[in-house]
Every structure is written in C-alpha cells, then in structure tokens.
C-alpha cells in the first residue's frame, strides 16, 4: 500500500540565519547525477510513485522539505507490512531490512541495532504528529516491530539461546527477514542491540501514555515490559562487562557506543520496572547498581577517556595496541542516541552534545577527513565549512570489500544533527558557553578571538554571532548530503572519496533515518528561534 504522510515541516521557511553566503556556497560545484552503473552493479529501487521526479537541488529550502519526505518514505519502504516494495513472503511484518540490496553487498537482513535506531525515528515522527489518526499506519508499524522482536528474542542462534541464565542469544546481531537465524560466520555477539531495543520500546510506551492513545494490537504496556524489555535488561546486567563486536561489526572488545547505549537502556528500563513491577525491588536495585557500575566504567575504568587524548576513544584496546587512533563517528552517535533534550531523566549519562570532549571529537574527525578524502580538499584552509565524513580514519571498507574507506551519509548527517542539538540545548537552557582547552579549537572556527578561560554570555552579541555561525555550519553538512544523493533522493551507505558517486548498499535504512533525524532537528531549531514565523 502507498502511505500518504502529513507533511510536518517548516523547512521551506528557511532559517533566517541558515543559508550561507560564503564563496563556497556561491561557487558550489554542479550537483552530481548518480549513474546506474558505477564500476559495480547498481541495484536501485524507486522510493515511491512521486519520487521519480528529480529533486530540487538548486533551492536548498525546497530540497530540505523534499528530502525529508523521501527519507521518511525510504525508511517505510524497508519495513515489512507497510512497504509496497517488499515481498511479504520474504519479509515479515515489522521486519526492518537494512537495505534491499541482496548482493554486492548483501544487506538483505534485519539487524537488531539498525532496526531499533530507525524505528526510533518513526516514534519521533509519531510524537511530532501527536499520534493522530492520520498516522495509524506508522503506529501499527512500530507495534509490528515490537511484536516481531518477541519472536527474534526466542530464536536459538549462534550467539546462544534465550533460555540460559545470561540470555546469551540476545547478543545475536542479525537475522534473515523471514525470522530465521543467520547461521554463517559473523562478528558476534554484539552487545548494543538489546539496549537500543529497550530505549526504542520505552520511547513508544511513554508516547502511548503521553497522548493517552490506545495500542493498535499490543496487549498492554506491562506485557511488553515483562516479555520483551525485561529480558534485554537481564542481558545487559549479565553481559555489560564482556567483550563484544562494535557497531561496525569488526572488533571484539569493549566499546564506548555499546557502554553508553547500555547506560541509557538501564535508565529507561528502571522507569518501566518501577511502573509495571514496583514490587520487584530486587531487580530495580540491580538495575541501579548496574547503572552505577557501567557509568564508573565509562568515566574512569574503561579507557574511553585519557588525560593526554583530546577526544573520546571508541575502542581503547585498539589505541593501546597502536592499531587505531580511537577517533570514531560511533562516539558521536553514542552521544546522540543516549540523551534527550526534552527530559531531565538522562542528565546522569555523561557526554552530551555540549561536552567538551564530544565537540573536540567532532572537530578532530573533521580535521582528519578534510585531508583524508580528496573530495574534501577544496575546503582545506576553510575552518567553518562542513566536510564529508566517514566512520573512522583507518577505515578500509569501501562498501563492497576492502580497499579504502569512504564518506558515509550516516556520519555526515550525524555532524549536522549534533550541531543542531547543541544549538537547541544552549537556547532552551539559556546557557553560557564556557571556553576551555578542549573545546576552544571548535568554537574558534566561528569566533576567532576566543581563548580558553573566556565565557560567552547567553544572549550577548558574541553569543548571537556564534549561534548564527553554528546554524550555517550545520547546514553545510546537509549541503554535502544534498550534493551526493541521487536525482530521486535515494541514499546509499557511502559515497566515493574521489568522485563522490554513491556506492555500497543501496537505499540504506539507517542512512535515511540519519538524514531524517538531522532534518527534523533543523526544523526544531527553526521553530525555537523563529516562533513568530510559525
């Protein structure tokens, strides 16, 4: 079926400060037209009947609106039950495939992590619409996802089983789209999936309470908690301090992204436990103690933070062995997916978007990749313009095999979203900006006379100038996304470091989610800064 989505957008009312007028934008290179064949077989799937028309690259505001709708539809097209493009015999209801690509590369699977992150985008959409009757199909899709995960949790798989004391089977990273176990060799277990699933499901249950709307087919919130959420919490309690593979499925170790997302899940799970099983004081206490242990590990014992390293270290063991620097976009993804600027419940989770180490991590990734990727070299010498970002400096995965790493849409959109969230937090908290040794190089891109020890007072001329520059900066990353999607707004996994054409898995669900998230936050910032234009 074709889903008609209500457009919730103020993007066409472009931020008064958001369209940069620097020479970079005025002399912007001609937009890329993505061919059907770029050295590899290109397996393209139309997003919808409306997407066959060329996107409007020339007008940034129009593109924002168009790409936001295309990205949202791109998510739905990759979910069983709501997609008109997927065979229901192949992809069951509620299954989120990573990509329709079945070879070169084969991403035609459901990953626990990717599914949780993209379904969270649907929940944010429901929140924006106040779960109106017009979006019942999206609500049903979320509930289908939840019901499907009850089945996945109980599948025996190479990582283990549901029935043992450690719930070991919950660490299995991916399954076939017909809900059978993937039996081949893989980077397993991956210990971030259960926590991300907890956070996504908790967000949906809170949404139901917030707007007092009924479930479509789920039995009850308590049933969802006891049957699906609680087992994932048990898994975290039992396994948080054990090695597992990272979100890029390459390294078996301890990882910042995994630990921080587990912290978020423990808070979410504690809220549900207190609501649905307040009598189980022992389990509630166990959640609290585990949270304290994981937080202590993240901040002091895990090696993610070192006094002589000016960024968050994603996988400390690799740095210790001299194999990698530790710089990784995963650290920024961790910050985004573990904090909620609308709630104080997560204030005890460290490394929010305004943390000096988070901002330093972003700056150093940009500095590295500005020189690493040839398509970025035109920006060398320009400090306040975004560049195409990849996963980490040492990356050699090219989307098909190993050679040279490339920029990713997820990474580039993440930079934009992080900056937008920073603006939102500064504005809603009416916060002064304290310049220190770690964040000074980030902020000096925009106000060059800043030095460590200075404070930018909220509402001052310097503050307003900085916010202006940050908005332009966030938009410059979205400009890069605009330049490298194809003419119908399709988004793959990567774009080539030399010529900029898309490559890797086509119509990547996580790419659509990351771009949609960034565009959503852009609108939230617009609404905050321009209330008179609503």
TrEMBL record:
This is glucan 1,4-alpha-glucosidase. Belongs to the glycosyl hydrolase 15 family. One of its GO terms (cellular component) is fungal-type vacuole. Its EC number is 3.2.1.3. It comes from the Eukaryota. SUPFAM superfamilies: Six-hairpin glycosidases. GO terms for molecular function: glucan 1,4-alpha-glucosidase activity. Keywords: Carbohydrate metabolism, Glycosidase, Hydrolase, Polysaccharide degradation, Signal. It holds the Pfam family Glyco_hydro_15. It comes from Scheffersomyces spartinae.
């Amino acid at each position: 079926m074709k889903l008609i989505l209500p457009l919730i957008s103020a993007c066409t009312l472009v931020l008064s400060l958001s369209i940069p007028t620097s020479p970079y934008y005025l002399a912007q290179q001609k937009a890329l037209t993505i061919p059907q064949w770029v050295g590899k077989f290109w397996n393209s799937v139309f997003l919808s009947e409306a997407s066959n028309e060329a996107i409007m690259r020339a007008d940034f505001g129009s593109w924002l609106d168009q790409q936001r709708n295309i990205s949202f539809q791109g998510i739905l097209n990759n979910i069983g039950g709501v997609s008109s493009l997927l065979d229901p015999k192949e992809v069951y209801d509620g299954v989120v495939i990573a990509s329709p690509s079945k070879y070169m590369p084969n991403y035609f699977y459901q990953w626990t992590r990717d599914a949780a992150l993209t379904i969270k985008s649907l929940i944010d959409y429901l929140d924006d619409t106040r779960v109106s009757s017009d979006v019942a199909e999206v609500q049903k899709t979320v509930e289908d996802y939840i019901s499907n995960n009850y089945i996945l949790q109980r599948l025996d798989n190479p990582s283990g089983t549901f029935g043992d004391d450690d719930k070991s089977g919950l660490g299995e990273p991916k399954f076939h789209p017909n809900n059978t176990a993937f039996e081949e060799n893989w980077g397993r277990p991956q210990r971030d999936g259960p926590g991300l699933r907890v956070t996504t499901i908790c967000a949906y249950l809170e949404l139901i309470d917030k707007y007092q709307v009924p479930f479509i087919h789920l039995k009850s919130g308590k049933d969802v908690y006891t049957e699906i959420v609680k087992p994932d919490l048990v898994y975290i309690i039992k396994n948080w301090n054990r090695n597992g593979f990272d979100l890029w499925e390459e390294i078996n170790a301890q990882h910042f992204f995994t630990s921080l997302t587990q912290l978020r899940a423990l808070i979410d799970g504690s809220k549900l436990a207190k609501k649905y099983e307040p009598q189980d004081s022992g389990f509630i206490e166990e959640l609290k103690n585990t949270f304290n242990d994981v937080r202590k590990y993240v901040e002091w014992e895990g090696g993610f933070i070192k006094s002589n390293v000016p960024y968050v270290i994603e996988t400390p063991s690799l740095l210790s062995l001299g194999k990698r620097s530790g710089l990784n976009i995963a650290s920024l993804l961790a910050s985004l997916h573990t904090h909620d600027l609308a709630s104080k419940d997560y204030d005890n989770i460290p490394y929010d978007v305004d943390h000096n180490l988070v901002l330093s991590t972003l700056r150093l990734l940009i500095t590295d990749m500005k020189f690493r990727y040839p398509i970025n070299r035109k920006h060398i010498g320009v400090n306040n313009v975004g560049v195409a970002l990849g996963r980490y400096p040492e990356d050699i995965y090219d989307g098909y095999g190993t050679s040279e790493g490339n920029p990713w849409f997820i990474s580039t959109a993440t930079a934009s979203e992080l900056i937008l969230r920073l603006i939102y937090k500064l504005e809603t908290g009416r916060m002064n900006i304290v310049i220190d040794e770690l964040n000074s190089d980030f902020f000096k891109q925009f106000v060059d006379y800043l030095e460590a020890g200075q404070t930018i007072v909220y509402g001052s001329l310097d503050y307003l100038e900085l916010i202006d520059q940050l908005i332009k900066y966030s938009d410059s990353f979205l400009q890069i996304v605009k330049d490298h999607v194809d003419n119908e707004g399709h988004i793959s996994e990567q774009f080539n470091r030399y010529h900029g054409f898309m490559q890797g898995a086509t119509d990547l669900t996580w790419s659509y989610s990351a771009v949609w998230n960034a565009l959503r936050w852009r609108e939230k910032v617009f609404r905050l800064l321009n209330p008179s234009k609503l």
